[in-house]
From TrEMBL:
Pfam families: GGDEF. It catalyses: 2 GTP = 3',3'-c-di-GMP + 2 diphosphate. This is diguanylate cyclase. Gene3D superfamilies: 3.30.70.270. The chain crosses the membrane at residues 12-31, 159-180.
Amino acid sequence: MISNFLKSTTVRLIILVCTVLSTLIFSSILFNTQIDNLKKQVDNIYFGNLIPIVKLQIISDNYKEIISCRTLKYVCDIKKEQLIIEEEWKYYYDAYKNSDEKIVTDTINTEVLNAFKENKLHFFKEVLNKINFLIQYETQVAFKERKKFVEDYDNMKKYLFYSIVIILFISFIVIVYIIYQVIKKDKQLTVLNKKYKIDSITDSMTKLYNRKYFDTIFDNMPFIANANNWKCAFIMFDIDYFKQYNDTYGHDMGDVTLKKVAFTLKEYFNKKYEFVFRLGGEEFGVVLFDIDENSLENCLKDINYKILELEIEHKNSKILNIVSISMGAIVYEPHTYISANKLYKQADESLYKAKENGRNQYHIYKGKE
Protein backbone atom coordinates (compact mmCIF):
# COMPACT_ATOMS: atom_id res chain seq x y z
CA MET A 1 0.00 0.00 0.00
CA ILE A 2 2.82 2.39 0.93
CA SER A 3 4.71 1.37 -2.23
CA ASN A 4 1.66 2.17 -4.39
CA PHE A 5 1.24 5.51 -2.64
CA LEU A 6 4.89 6.41 -3.29
CA LYS A 7 4.39 5.60 -6.99
CA SER A 8 1.20 7.65 -7.23
CA THR A 9 0.79 10.78 -9.35
CA THR A 10 0.08 12.82 -6.21
CA VAL A 11 3.47 12.00 -4.69
CA ARG A 12 5.22 12.80 -7.97
CA LEU A 13 3.51 16.19 -8.16
CA ILE A 14 4.46 16.89 -4.53
CA ILE A 15 8.09 16.02 -5.37
CA LEU A 16 7.88 18.35 -8.38
CA VAL A 17 6.65 21.26 -6.24
CA CYS A 18 9.26 20.54 -3.55
CA THR A 19 12.00 20.41 -6.19
CA VAL A 20 11.03 23.79 -7.61
CA LEU A 21 10.76 25.36 -4.14
CA SER A 22 14.04 23.78 -2.99
CA THR A 23 15.79 25.07 -6.10
CA LEU A 24 14.55 28.61 -5.51
CA ILE A 25 15.38 28.51 -1.79
CA PHE A 26 18.85 27.01 -2.32
CA SER A 27 19.64 29.47 -5.12
CA SER A 28 18.54 32.37 -2.89
CA ILE A 29 20.66 31.15 0.03
CA LEU A 30 23.67 30.65 -2.23
CA PHE A 31 23.25 34.07 -3.76
CA ASN A 32 22.81 35.78 -0.37
CA THR A 33 25.84 33.96 1.06
CA GLN A 34 28.06 35.10 -1.77
CA ILE A 35 26.71 38.64 -1.56
CA ASP A 36 27.58 38.66 2.17
CA ASN A 37 31.10 37.51 1.34
CA LEU A 38 31.33 40.26 -1.24
CA LYS A 39 30.17 42.81 1.33
CA LYS A 40 32.85 41.65 3.76
CA GLN A 41 35.50 42.06 1.10
CA VAL A 42 34.25 45.56 0.31
CA ASP A 43 34.32 46.40 4.01
CA ASN A 44 37.85 45.05 4.31
CA ILE A 45 39.00 47.15 1.38
CA TYR A 46 37.27 50.23 2.72
CA PHE A 47 38.27 49.93 6.35
CA GLY A 48 41.57 48.16 5.68
CA ASN A 49 42.84 50.58 3.03
CA LEU A 50 40.79 53.75 2.79
CA ILE A 51 40.57 54.54 6.52
CA PRO A 52 44.34 54.16 7.16
CA ILE A 53 45.10 56.50 4.26
CA VAL A 54 42.62 59.06 5.63
CA LYS A 55 44.24 58.83 9.07
CA LEU A 56 47.72 59.21 7.64
CA GLN A 57 46.59 62.16 5.56
CA ILE A 58 45.27 63.89 8.71
CA ILE A 59 48.58 63.21 10.44
CA SER A 60 50.49 64.57 7.43
CA ASP A 61 48.39 67.76 7.34
CA ASN A 62 49.01 68.43 11.02
CA TYR A 63 52.73 67.85 10.64
CA LYS A 64 52.69 70.38 7.80
CA GLU A 65 50.98 72.86 10.10
CA ILE A 66 53.71 72.34 12.71
CA ILE A 67 56.51 72.63 10.16
CA SER A 68 54.94 75.74 8.64
CA CYS A 69 54.67 77.37 12.05
CA ARG A 70 58.17 76.36 13.15
CA THR A 71 59.62 77.62 9.88
CA LEU A 72 58.24 81.12 10.51
CA LYS A 73 58.98 81.28 14.23
CA TYR A 74 60.84 79.13 16.70
CA VAL A 75 58.22 79.01 19.42
CA CYS A 76 54.81 77.68 18.38
CA ASP A 77 51.85 76.25 20.25
CA ILE A 78 51.58 72.77 18.73
CA LYS A 79 49.58 71.03 21.47
CA LYS A 80 46.43 70.93 19.36
CA GLU A 81 48.30 69.39 16.38
CA GLN A 82 50.22 67.04 18.67
CA LEU A 83 46.99 65.77 20.26
CA ILE A 84 45.42 65.09 16.84
CA ILE A 85 48.60 63.40 15.52
CA GLU A 86 48.96 61.14 18.57
CA GLU A 87 45.27 60.18 18.52
CA GLU A 88 45.18 59.44 14.77
CA TRP A 89 48.54 57.65 14.88
CA LYS A 90 47.41 55.42 17.73
CA TYR A 91 44.29 54.45 15.74
CA TYR A 92 46.42 53.70 12.69
CA TYR A 93 49.17 51.89 14.59
CA ASP A 94 46.76 49.66 16.59
CA ALA A 95 44.78 48.64 13.49
CA TYR A 96 45.41 45.15 12.09
CA LYS A 97 48.53 44.81 9.95
CA ASN A 98 50.37 41.91 8.44
CA SER A 99 53.95 41.11 9.40
CA ASP A 100 55.53 43.22 6.61
CA GLU A 101 53.37 46.23 7.47
CA LYS A 102 54.17 45.81 11.16
CA ILE A 103 57.94 46.06 10.53
CA VAL A 104 57.47 49.30 8.59
CA THR A 105 55.12 50.91 11.12
CA ASP A 106 57.22 49.88 14.17
CA THR A 107 60.20 51.81 12.82
CA ILE A 108 58.16 54.91 12.09
CA ASN A 109 56.26 54.61 15.39
CA THR A 110 59.45 55.27 17.34
CA GLU A 111 60.23 58.36 15.27
CA VAL A 112 56.65 59.71 15.67
CA LEU A 113 56.87 59.40 19.46
CA ASN A 114 60.42 60.84 19.69
CA ALA A 115 59.73 63.81 17.39
CA PHE A 116 57.64 65.60 20.01
CA LYS A 117 60.19 64.83 22.70
CA GLU A 118 62.98 66.35 20.65
CA ASN A 119 60.65 69.12 19.38
CA LYS A 120 63.03 70.00 16.52
CA LEU A 121 62.08 71.07 13.02
CA HIS A 122 64.23 68.56 11.14
CA PHE A 123 62.72 65.69 13.20
CA PHE A 124 59.24 66.81 12.19
CA LYS A 125 60.31 66.97 8.53
CA GLU A 126 61.79 63.47 8.70
CA VAL A 127 58.64 62.11 10.29
CA LEU A 128 56.51 63.89 7.65
CA ASN A 129 58.56 62.19 4.94
CA LYS A 130 57.97 58.84 6.66
CA ILE A 131 54.24 59.56 6.90
CA ASN A 132 54.12 60.47 3.20
CA PHE A 133 55.97 57.21 2.51
CA LEU A 134 53.33 55.35 4.48
CA ILE A 135 50.57 57.03 2.45
CA GLN A 136 52.21 55.83 -0.77
CA TYR A 137 52.72 52.40 0.74
CA GLU A 138 49.06 52.11 1.84
CA THR A 139 47.95 53.35 -1.59
CA GLN A 140 49.95 50.59 -3.29
CA VAL A 141 48.47 48.04 -0.90
CA ALA A 142 45.00 49.39 -1.72
CA PHE A 143 45.63 48.92 -5.44
CA LYS A 144 46.75 45.34 -4.82
CA GLU A 145 43.69 44.67 -2.65
CA ARG A 146 41.45 46.14 -5.31
CA LYS A 147 43.03 43.95 -7.98
CA LYS A 148 42.58 40.91 -5.78
CA PHE A 149 39.00 41.95 -5.06
CA VAL A 150 38.21 42.28 -8.78
CA GLU A 151 39.65 38.80 -9.38
CA ASP A 152 37.65 37.38 -6.46
CA TYR A 153 34.58 39.18 -7.72
CA ASP A 154 34.96 37.67 -11.21
CA ASN A 155 35.52 34.23 -9.73
CA MET A 156 32.50 34.67 -7.50
CA LYS A 157 30.35 35.66 -10.48
CA LYS A 158 31.48 32.55 -12.35
CA TYR A 159 30.92 30.39 -9.28
CA LEU A 160 27.43 31.77 -8.81
CA PHE A 161 26.62 31.41 -12.50
CA TYR A 162 27.83 27.82 -12.81
CA SER A 163 26.29 26.83 -9.47
CA ILE A 164 22.87 28.18 -10.45
CA VAL A 165 23.18 26.61 -13.92
CA ILE A 166 23.96 23.21 -12.34
CA ILE A 167 21.13 23.57 -9.83
CA LEU A 168 18.69 24.56 -12.56
CA PHE A 169 19.90 21.74 -14.80
CA ILE A 170 19.48 19.13 -12.07
CA SER A 171 16.08 20.58 -11.18
CA PHE A 172 15.12 20.57 -14.85
CA ILE A 173 16.10 16.89 -15.15
CA VAL A 174 14.07 16.03 -12.04
CA ILE A 175 11.06 18.05 -13.25
CA VAL A 176 11.23 16.54 -16.76
CA TYR A 177 11.47 13.04 -15.27
CA ILE A 178 8.47 13.65 -13.01
CA ILE A 179 6.44 15.16 -15.87
CA TYR A 180 7.44 12.20 -18.06
CA GLN A 181 6.29 9.78 -15.37
CA VAL A 182 3.01 11.67 -14.95
CA ILE A 183 2.41 11.68 -18.74
CA LYS A 184 3.40 8.02 -18.95
CA LYS A 185 1.04 7.18 -16.12
CA ASP A 186 -1.71 9.21 -17.77
CA LYS A 187 -1.17 7.37 -21.06
CA GLN A 188 -1.22 4.05 -19.24
CA LEU A 189 -4.49 5.02 -17.58
CA THR A 190 -5.90 6.11 -20.95
CA VAL A 191 -4.88 2.80 -22.52
CA LEU A 192 -6.28 0.87 -19.57
CA ASN A 193 -9.53 2.82 -19.70
CA LYS A 194 -9.78 2.26 -23.43
CA LYS A 195 -8.97 -1.43 -22.97
CA TYR A 196 -11.53 -1.64 -20.19
CA LYS A 197 -14.18 -0.04 -22.39
CA ILE A 198 -13.32 -2.41 -25.24
CA ASP A 199 -13.26 -5.41 -22.90
CA SER A 200 -16.59 -4.40 -21.41
CA ILE A 201 -18.31 -4.62 -24.82
CA THR A 202 -16.30 -7.49 -26.35
CA ASP A 203 -16.68 -11.22 -26.13
CA SER A 204 -13.38 -12.54 -24.78
CA MET A 205 -13.19 -15.62 -26.99
CA THR A 206 -14.44 -14.48 -30.41
CA LYS A 207 -13.51 -10.78 -30.04
CA LEU A 208 -16.92 -9.85 -31.40
CA TYR A 209 -19.18 -7.41 -29.59
CA ASN A 210 -20.89 -9.09 -26.64
CA ARG A 211 -24.54 -9.49 -25.69
CA LYS A 212 -24.45 -6.45 -23.39
CA TYR A 213 -23.36 -4.18 -26.23
CA PHE A 214 -25.86 -5.85 -28.57
CA ASP A 215 -28.68 -4.86 -26.22
CA THR A 216 -27.51 -1.24 -26.36
CA ILE A 217 -27.23 -1.10 -30.16
CA PHE A 218 -30.32 -3.18 -30.93
CA ASP A 219 -32.57 -1.32 -28.47
CA ASN A 220 -31.60 1.95 -30.19
CA MET A 221 -31.85 0.62 -33.74
CA PRO A 222 -35.45 1.81 -34.32
CA PHE A 223 -34.66 5.30 -33.01
CA ILE A 224 -31.53 5.58 -35.20
CA ALA A 225 -33.46 4.32 -38.24
CA ASN A 226 -36.29 6.80 -37.65
CA ALA A 227 -33.93 9.74 -37.08
CA ASN A 228 -31.95 9.07 -40.29
CA ASN A 229 -34.82 7.66 -42.37
CA TRP A 230 -32.82 4.45 -42.86
CA LYS A 231 -33.93 0.90 -43.46
CA CYS A 232 -32.12 -1.37 -41.02
CA ALA A 233 -31.66 -5.12 -40.77
CA PHE A 234 -30.98 -7.65 -38.06
CA ILE A 235 -29.66 -11.14 -38.84
CA MET A 236 -29.46 -14.07 -36.42
CA PHE A 237 -26.96 -16.87 -37.19
CA ASP A 238 -26.86 -20.33 -35.67
CA ILE A 239 -24.27 -23.04 -36.39
CA ASP A 240 -26.12 -26.15 -37.51
CA TYR A 241 -25.97 -29.14 -35.15
CA PHE A 242 -23.26 -27.53 -33.01
CA LYS A 243 -24.07 -29.72 -29.98
CA GLN A 244 -23.31 -32.80 -32.07
CA TYR A 245 -20.08 -31.09 -33.24
CA ASN A 246 -18.92 -30.60 -29.63
CA ASP A 247 -19.90 -34.17 -28.74
CA THR A 248 -17.88 -35.48 -31.69
CA TYR A 249 -14.78 -33.25 -31.69
CA GLY A 250 -14.72 -31.88 -28.14
CA HIS A 251 -15.24 -28.40 -26.75
CA ASP A 252 -11.72 -27.24 -27.61
CA MET A 253 -12.34 -27.86 -31.30
CA GLY A 254 -15.78 -26.32 -30.82
CA ASP A 255 -14.13 -23.12 -29.59
CA VAL A 256 -11.82 -23.14 -32.61
CA THR A 257 -14.83 -23.43 -34.93
CA LEU A 258 -16.63 -20.60 -33.13
CA LYS A 259 -13.58 -18.39 -33.63
CA LYS A 260 -13.36 -19.25 -37.34
CA VAL A 261 -17.04 -18.51 -37.93
CA ALA A 262 -16.77 -15.28 -35.87
CA PHE A 263 -13.72 -14.16 -37.84
CA THR A 264 -15.51 -14.80 -41.15
CA LEU A 265 -18.52 -12.77 -40.03
CA LYS A 266 -16.34 -9.93 -38.75
CA GLU A 267 -14.24 -9.90 -41.91
CA TYR A 268 -17.33 -9.75 -44.14
CA PHE A 269 -19.36 -7.23 -42.17
CA ASN A 270 -16.55 -4.71 -41.74
CA LYS A 271 -18.09 -1.48 -43.00
CA LYS A 272 -19.28 1.54 -41.10
CA TYR A 273 -22.68 0.97 -39.45
CA GLU A 274 -22.19 -2.84 -39.51
CA PHE A 275 -22.02 -4.50 -36.08
CA VAL A 276 -21.32 -8.19 -35.42
CA PHE A 277 -22.18 -9.78 -32.06
CA ARG A 278 -21.88 -13.08 -30.27
CA LEU A 279 -25.30 -13.52 -28.71
CA GLY A 280 -24.39 -16.65 -26.77
CA GLY A 281 -23.17 -20.19 -27.39
CA GLU A 282 -23.13 -20.85 -31.15
CA GLU A 283 -25.51 -17.99 -31.88
CA PHE A 284 -24.38 -14.76 -33.57
CA GLY A 285 -26.11 -11.56 -34.61
CA VAL A 286 -25.48 -8.74 -37.07
CA VAL A 287 -27.11 -5.29 -37.09
CA LEU A 288 -26.92 -3.41 -40.40
CA PHE A 289 -27.89 0.24 -40.76
CA ASP A 290 -28.94 1.89 -44.05
CA ILE A 291 -29.55 -1.27 -46.11
CA ASP A 292 -32.30 -2.45 -48.45
CA GLU A 293 -33.84 -5.92 -48.97
CA ASN A 294 -31.84 -6.75 -52.10
CA SER A 295 -28.51 -5.90 -50.45
CA LEU A 296 -29.53 -7.88 -47.38
CA GLU A 297 -30.37 -10.98 -49.46
CA ASN A 298 -27.04 -10.74 -51.27
CA CYS A 299 -25.24 -10.55 -47.89
CA LEU A 300 -27.07 -13.67 -46.67
CA LYS A 301 -26.13 -15.62 -49.80
CA ASP A 302 -22.49 -14.49 -49.58
CA ILE A 303 -22.03 -15.30 -45.91
CA ASN A 304 -23.66 -18.72 -46.31
CA TYR A 305 -21.20 -19.51 -49.09
CA LYS A 306 -18.19 -18.19 -47.10
CA ILE A 307 -18.98 -20.41 -44.11
CA LEU A 308 -19.16 -23.45 -46.39
CA GLU A 309 -15.87 -22.35 -47.94
CA LEU A 310 -14.20 -22.88 -44.56
CA GLU A 311 -14.76 -26.62 -45.05
CA ILE A 312 -14.72 -27.38 -41.34
CA GLU A 313 -15.36 -31.12 -41.00
CA HIS A 314 -18.64 -32.08 -39.31
CA LYS A 315 -19.28 -35.77 -39.97
CA ASN A 316 -22.28 -35.94 -37.62
CA SER A 317 -24.18 -33.10 -39.29
CA LYS A 318 -27.52 -34.29 -40.66
CA ILE A 319 -27.33 -32.15 -43.78
CA LEU A 320 -23.66 -31.91 -44.84
CA ASN A 321 -20.28 -33.31 -43.80
CA ILE A 322 -18.98 -29.78 -43.10
CA VAL A 323 -20.07 -26.96 -40.77
CA SER A 324 -22.96 -24.84 -42.05
CA ILE A 325 -25.18 -22.09 -40.64
CA SER A 326 -28.84 -21.15 -40.59
CA MET A 327 -29.91 -17.52 -40.74
CA GLY A 328 -33.02 -15.54 -39.88
CA ALA A 329 -33.34 -11.87 -40.82
CA ILE A 330 -35.74 -8.96 -40.45
CA VAL A 331 -35.86 -5.53 -42.10
CA TYR A 332 -37.02 -2.55 -40.09
CA GLU A 333 -38.80 0.15 -42.08
CA PRO A 334 -38.31 3.67 -40.63
CA HIS A 335 -41.26 5.16 -38.76
CA THR A 336 -43.08 1.83 -38.37
CA TYR A 337 -42.37 2.08 -34.62
CA ILE A 338 -42.01 -1.63 -33.97
CA SER A 339 -40.36 -2.28 -30.62
CA ALA A 340 -36.90 -3.84 -30.35
CA ASN A 341 -38.35 -6.80 -28.44
CA LYS A 342 -40.81 -7.54 -31.24
CA LEU A 343 -38.08 -7.20 -33.88
CA TYR A 344 -35.92 -9.68 -31.99
CA LYS A 345 -38.82 -12.11 -31.78
CA GLN A 346 -39.44 -11.80 -35.53
CA ALA A 347 -35.76 -12.50 -36.28
CA ASP A 348 -35.88 -15.52 -33.99
CA GLU A 349 -38.98 -16.80 -35.81
CA SER A 350 -37.16 -16.36 -39.12
CA LEU A 351 -34.19 -18.35 -37.82
CA TYR A 352 -36.55 -21.10 -36.68
CA LYS A 353 -38.16 -21.09 -40.14
CA ALA A 354 -34.74 -21.52 -41.81
CA LYS A 355 -34.01 -24.49 -39.55
CA GLU A 356 -37.46 -25.92 -40.16
CA ASN A 357 -36.91 -25.67 -43.92
CA GLY A 358 -33.78 -27.85 -43.74
CA ARG A 359 -30.99 -25.57 -42.37
CA ASN A 360 -27.93 -24.31 -44.29
CA GLN A 361 -30.12 -21.46 -45.59
CA TYR A 362 -31.63 -18.11 -44.71
CA HIS A 363 -35.13 -16.79 -44.22
CA ILE A 364 -36.20 -13.12 -44.25
CA TYR A 365 -39.26 -12.20 -42.22
CA LYS A 366 -42.14 -11.13 -44.46
CA GLY A 367 -44.85 -10.36 -41.94
CA LYS A 368 -47.20 -12.94 -40.53
CA GLU A 369 -46.42 -16.26 -42.17
